[in-house]
Amino acid sequence: MASLSKFVLGVAAALLTVQIRAAPVPEVPYKYVLAFSIDGMHSSDVEKYTAARPGSNITKLLSTGYEYTNAFTSAPSDSFPGSIAQFTGGSPRTTGIWYDDVWDWTYYPPGSNCTGTPGAEVAYAENLDYNSSLLWSGGIDPGNLPQTLVDGKCVSVYPHSRVQVNTAFEVARAAGLQTAYVDKHPSYEIMNGPSGKGLSVGYFPEIQAVPVTVNDTIAYDELHVQAWLSLIEGKAPLNSSGALNTSAMPSLMGGNFQSVSVAQKTVGYNNDSTSSLSPALIHAFDYVDAALGRIRAKLEQKGYLNDTLIIVASKHGQAPINPRLWTEVDPDALVNATGVPVAFATTDDIGLIWLNDTADIPTAVGNLAKNASELDIQTTISGAQLIAQGFGNSAASSRVPHLIVRPKLGTCFTTSKTKLAEHGGLSDDDRKVACFISNPKLQKMTWSQAVNTTQIAPTILKALGLDPNALEAVLSENTPLLPGFA
Predict the structure, then answer these.
(1) What pLDDT was estimated at residue 246?
(2) What residue segments make up the domains of the chain, in order of their start?
(3) Which of 135, 134, 422, 124 is nearest to 262 (CA)?
């Protein structure tokens, strides 16, 4: 895969001074919306990068755009709920998407034919592939899917069937528009939404097939960029699923970059007073910045730029930013410390725990409190606290974990000796992400009030001239438009 690195591009970039003032509501509708996640990019990284590179494409986008400097992604901040939030307008309690690896008491293991005792792991990552060592192995192997009973019949559950609410892609398709999405696993067909029909085109090369280095990930990201450039030309990329029914660019496209996330995990920030960008991070940001410039140039060449709203919003951050805070705790120690039988636990810089018996919740919480210092636990959320903090009711939903363990900033429940950061948790480093929107017709604006990336979904529909209230999660959670679009 290292040979792919010939695609790597560099770019220069620039310092941006932002001002806050009242903004006119932009003209709508736009003909196109392109939504990109720079995975791992924090709000603070926007400032650091534009200061380090005084003529960047990011600076150019910000010069005719709206920046939200206090934007928060989903909690938990895993890639799956973070992605779903931006295209449904909902949090995990509403979408039902908590993580890419969870437990469900109503599911059965793959290949079980729904026999035995219900309760199974629901993992939607590279494990679904026919062969995760290949970029392209045929998509999802149905034999790897979890199963459940529907009207007495055992069915395999594709990721899109797991989503409890519709997506912006489905609303766009219902309006006769074309859509496309690009991401890191075939499991990201989840963006189809519960109808299974949200995407005209899906493009999902398997990132697990690529060595975990910055340069190899940049080469992998170039596959995404070439796919977007092809889609702008009105052509579905090779190895994609679905098809375009016209030669026009899809009205709604989305997808992600992985390079920055890998640089954060493998190299991290500089160990100085400001946690400045390391050479590896600058290298990754330079590539992404140049890629955004090429996409913008292609839109301009095709005559689409003025009619396109470009959204850049990270599906997750990465913790910790300060490399001196990184600490590893064995996830088995966390599970054992509960002192009660555990059905399943998902751990990163968070712990999601499902117990065999809900009567054991108080005991588990008490035992974790006794071991909080040893395990670097900041707090354990359960019961009424889950409801009060917006996570949902574990007594009413098989999807909601019984316990959410929040460690101290920088602590990760892992045995890995190669990571320097991770995401999934509840800290600001995990959740406070880059978020800006650009179009040549917009005046440069900055909003410092707190917003959520769930607000992107209704904003997308408003920009396309569609009804934001067509999104079920928007109605359920009363999700507002982003400032400047209301």
Answers:
(1) 87
(2) 32-106+159-322+426-477, 327-413
(3) 422
* Most distant CA pair in the chain, distance: 63
Structure-block tokens of residue 291:
């890629």
Residue type, 111: G
Question: What are the backbone angles phi and psi of residue 69, rounded to the nearest 5°?
Answer: -85, -5
Distance of CA 432 to the CA centre of its chain: 13
The CA distances from residue 444 to 23, 55, 65, in Å, are 9, 16, 5
The pLDDT confidence band at residue 20, using thresholds 50, 70 and 90, is very low
Please give the average per-residue pLDDT across 52-77, as a whole number. Answer: 98
Say if residues 134 and 220 touch (Cβ distance below 8 Å).
Answer: no
Amino acid at 353: I
**What local confidence, expressed as pLDDT, does residue 450 receive?**
99
Query: CB of 312 within 8 A of CB of 292?
Result: yes
State how far the Cα of 187 lies from the Cα of 144, in Å rounded to an integer: 11
Q: Tell me how many helices (H) and strands (E) the chain has.
A: 16, 23
Evaluate if pTM is beyond 0.85. yes
> What is the predicted pLDDT for the residue at 17?
32
Beta carbons of 84 and 109 less than 8 angstroms apart: no
How far the first Cα of the chain sits from its last, in Å, is 45
**Chain Cα centroid distance, residue 102:** 16
Higher pLDDT, 382 or 486: 382
Q: Would you call 290 helix, strand, or coil by DSSP?
A: helix
**Total number of residues shown for the chain:** 486
List pLDDT tens digits, range 218-252: 999 999 999 999 999 999 999 999 999 988 999 99
Assess contact for 98 and 350: CB atoms under 8 A. no
The CATH code of domain 32-106+159-322+426-477 reads: 3.40.720.10
Residue-level pLDDT at 26: 57
Instruction: Yes or no: say if 169 and 193 are a contact pair by the CB < 8 Å rule.
Output: yes
Q: Which one, of 297, 229, 221, 238, lies nearest residue 37 by Cα? A: 221
